[in-house]
Amino acid sequence: MKKFLLHLTIIISLFTLSAKAQNKISVTNLQSEMLNNPEGIDVLQPRLSWQINAEVNDVKQTAYQILVASTLEKLNANNADLWDSGKVESNEAVNIIYKGKKLENRQDVFWKVAIWTNKGEVKSNNNAHFSIGILTYADWKSTRWIGYEKLSKDDSVSQYARLSARYLRKEINLKKQVKNAKVYIMGMGLYELYINGNKIGDQVLAPVPTDYTKNVKYNVFDVTSQLKEGKNMLGTILGNGRFFAMRQDYKPYKIKSFGLPKMALQLFVEYTDGSTVIIRTDDSWKVTTDGPILSNNEYDGEEYDARKEMKGWNTTNFDDKSWVNARYVQEPGGFYEGQMTPNMKIMGEVKPISIKATAKGTYILDMGQNMVGWLQLRVKGKSGDQVTMKFAESLQADGALYIANLRDAKTTDVYTLKGEGEEIWEPRFIFHGFRFVEVSGFPTKPTVDNFVGKVVYDDIKTTGTFESSDAIMNQIFKNAYWGIRGNYKGMPIDCPQRNERQPWLGDRTTGAYGESFLFDNQTLYAKWLDDIKNAQTQDGGLPDVAPAFWRYYGDNVTWPGTYITVADMLYQQFADQEVIKKQYPYMKKWMLYMEENYLLNDLMDKDKYGDWCVPPESLELIRSKDPARLTDGGLISSAFYYQLLGIMKKFAKISNADADIEYYNNLSERISKAFNAKYLNAATNTYANNTVTANVLPLAFGLVPENIKEKVFQNMVHEVEVTKMGHISTGVIGTQFLMRTLTNFGRGDLAFKLASNKTYPSWGFMVENGATTIWELWNGNTADPSMNSQNHVMLLGDLLIWYYENMAGIKSNPETPGFKQIIMKPDFAAGLTYVNASYESIHGLIKSNWKKSKNNLQWDITVPANTSALVYLPTTTSSNVILNGKKIIAETYKIDGNNLMLTLPSGTYNVSVKR
C-alpha cells in the first residue's frame, strides 16, 4: 500500500503550554477539530502546527524544538525516542514536517513543542497525541468484507429504490484485562457502530462519501473504555448512503451504483500483559434485515417501524437464532484510506416557530429557517399509529407545500409507533433540505414542542464573523452561512433538497475561497481534490461532478478548472504547499489534455455551460435565450484557460517543476495575443458583445492591454450602472470576479450598490422575498420549478471574498500565504459606515472593527502573534493618525498613493484617523 509523503495536511492538537507570566505568552492547539479524531492518521510524515497566544504586542517566534515520543511517560521525561528536532532557528509554526523515525502501523505518538520568542522562552507542560492507522493492504487482507446480498420482501431495485437496513452482530470473549483497544471500520454506504449497547462516536452519516471503486475511507475509534474482560458484543447498522444509489436501475448510463451495503472491521485489543488479539469480520457474524429501518434513501426519506425494534440486539443477552450468518462479499474495489476529514455531526438545533392546521387535517410546521438535517419527533399514541413528515423549502400561495422543485425526490419520513408511552425518534441515514414540514397522521394535536430540527454537516469550525452597517448585507451573510454549511456533506454538494445533491465542480470555482473565511474547510477541500484526481480519465479528462456519482465528462474549462482554483485557495488561505505538490502532475495532465484536444488557433474553443444562470429576460425562464445577455463560450473558456496557466506557473515553482514555467509562459503569450485579436473591439474598447462577463474576465485576468484598461473598465461600469441600472447581469462565471474587479478599479461604491440592492436581480432581492439561504437562480421565486433550488451557493461568486478582503480588510498577502502577513485595506468609501469582522486564521484570530463618521475613523485591529499586518489608512497626513493613543513616527509608515500604510507587528491596536 503506497503512501504519499504528507498525504494530507495533518494539524495535531497541542494544548495550552506554560509561559513566563511576565510575558503573557502561551501556545495553544491549532484547529484540532480539522481531524475526525487523532486516531488512525494515514500519513507517514505528518505536519505539526501550533498557535502562539500573546497578551502583549510584537511577539515573534525565533526558534522551536519539537519532541516526539512513543509513550506519554517518555515524553514527560523529555525522552524523545521518535524525534527531537533540536533547536531550530525559524519563525514558522505551521506545517512543520515530522522528520523522525519511521512510524509504524497502529503506533501511538505523543509530542510537544517549546518555542523561543523575542520576548523569551515558552516551555511546554502538556502534550498532544495521535496514532497511525493501518498502512498496508496486507494488514486488511485477512479481514473479510461481509454483508447480506439479498433483497427483503419490501425492497425494490427501481427508480424509487427501497432497501432495509442491515443489522449485524458478533459476540466476542476477551480473556484478559484490556489495556488499549481501537476499532477500524469501513461500513458501506453508511454505518453506526455499537459496543455493548453503546453507540461509538457522535458522528452521523459516516463515513464520508467517495467513489468506492477508487478509494474507501475507514474510521478509527479508541474503544478502550467500552470493553471489559469477558463477553462483549459488537453491533453495526448499515445504511445505503451513496453506495446503494438512490435511483437504482434508472439511467444506469448516468448514475453510478456500487452494490448492496457491506462492511469490514478490525478490533485491535492490547491486554495489560502486553499480548494482543484482533477480532475481524468473518462469516461467524450474524445479520438480519428484519429490523425497524424499513427503507433509507437520501432522496426519498427514511421509514421506521418501532414495532419491529429488537430490544438488546447489540448487547450480549440477545437471542439471535432467527438471524442468519453473514456472507463473504466482494470488496468495493477502492484503495483503503484512513479518513482524514471530519465526519458529519449534529452541529446545532432549530426550534420550530409555528405549526398550523390545514383544511385537509394535516399540519404545516415552520422551522423559520431553511436548514439541512432532519426532525426529531416526540409522540404518544397507539401501536400502529403512523406519523408522516414531508419536507420542503417553501409553501404555495394556498399554504400547501411547494414540492415542484424537488423533482422526483419524495423527501418523506414515516414513523410507525410501538405504543409505549412517549416515543422519541429521528432518522439515521438520510438528510433533508427544508424549512417547512407537512405532518400527517399525528395521533394528537401536535405543538412545536413535539419537534426539534437537527442541523447536520461536517464537524468543522466556524472561523469567520461579519457585521456591517447595512442590514441587507448582514442578512445575505447569514443566508450564505446557512447555505454553505448545509451543503457540506463530506464533499461540497450543490443542493440538499431535490433529487440531485451532487458535488458539482463549477459551484465552487471561487466559492470555496469565500467559504474559507466562514469555515475551516481545509481538509474538506483537500479530500475533494483527491476525489477529482481519482475521477480523472486515463487520457487526462476531468468530470464536472466529483466523485463521479453522475458520469458527466463534458471537457469544458470552467467546471474542471475548479481542480486548480481550489488548490490555489488551499495554498493562499492555509499555506498548504504539499497539496499542490501532490496534485500538480494530475493538473498538468489535464491542462495538456485540454490543449491537445481543444486549443485551436491559440484559443480554447470548448465550452459547455457558458455564463451559467444569468438573469433571464423572462422571470419564468431558467436560462436566457437573449443573445445580448449571453457571453461567447469561447471567450469564457479561453480567458479561464489563460488564468489557469498563470496559477500553474506558481504551482510549477512550488512543485520544483521550473522547466514547465517556460511552457506556461509561451502558451499564455500566444493565447493573450489570439484572445485580443478575436474578442477585443478596438473601436469601442469592449470585448465580444459587451456583456459585463465578457469585459470583467479579461480585466480580472490581466488580458487587457495596459493602455486601454481604464476604457474597458468604464465601458463595463456603464453596462452595470446605466444599462442594467445598478443591478447584477452576470451568471456563475462573471459573478466570481465582479465585486473585486469593481473595487480594485476604484468603484467599490458600485460593488456596494450591487451588494445592498433589494430589487431584482440581486442577493438582496432574495432576502426581500423571504429567502433564508441563497437561491440557485436570481429569479428563484418565479422560475420553472425544474431548476429553482432555494439552497444553492454558486451565485455567491466572489461576494464573501469581497466582504472580508475589501470591506473588512482581512486578506492574506499572496507573497506570504496563510496570513503570515495580512493586508488590511478596507474600502472605507464604498458605502458602509462600520464593519465588525473576525477570522480565525491558521496563525490565530484576526479582527477588524472600524467605524467612520464625517470627521473621524476609529479602527480596532487584532493581529495574531508571529504575524504582521500592512494597514492602509485613508490619509496621507501622518499628523491625522493616532495609534494606541500616540502619534506615529516616520519609521513605522510610508505613503502609498492616497493612503498612509502602517506596518504593524502582532498585537491589538486602536487607530484613529481625522478625516
Structure described in brief:
This protein is of the alpha+beta class and 915 residues long. Helices cover 20% and strands 29% of the residues.
Give a written overview of the molecule.
- Residues 809-880 form the Alpha-L-rhamnosidase C-terminal domain.
- It catalyses: Hydrolysis of terminal non-reducing alpha-L-rhamnose residues in alpha-L-rhamnosides.
- This is alpha-L-rhamnosidase.
- It comes from Flavobacterium frigidimaris.
- Keywords: Hydrolase, Signal.
- The chain is built from 16 helices and 49 strands.
- The chain has 915 residues and is α+β, with helices and mostly antiparallel strands.
- The chain folds into five domains: 25-131, Immunoglobulins (Immunoglobulin-like), CATH 2.60.40.10; 138-341, Galactose-binding domain-like (Jelly Rolls, Sandwich); 346-458, Galactose-binding domain-like (Jelly Rolls, Sandwich); 464-808, Glycosyltransferase (Alpha/alpha barrel); 812-914, Maltose phosphorylase, domain 3 (Sandwich).
- Strands 21, 22, 26, 27, 28, 29, 32, 33, 34 and 35 form a ten-stranded mixed beta sheet that branches. Strands 36, 41, 42, 43, 44, 45, 46, 47, 48 and 49 form a ten-stranded mixed beta sheet that branches. Strands 11, 13, 16, 18, 19, 24 and 25 form a seven-stranded mixed beta sheet that branches.
- A hairpin with a 2-residue loop joins strand 48 (893-896) and strand 49 (899-914).
- It is globular.
- 53% of the residues are buried.
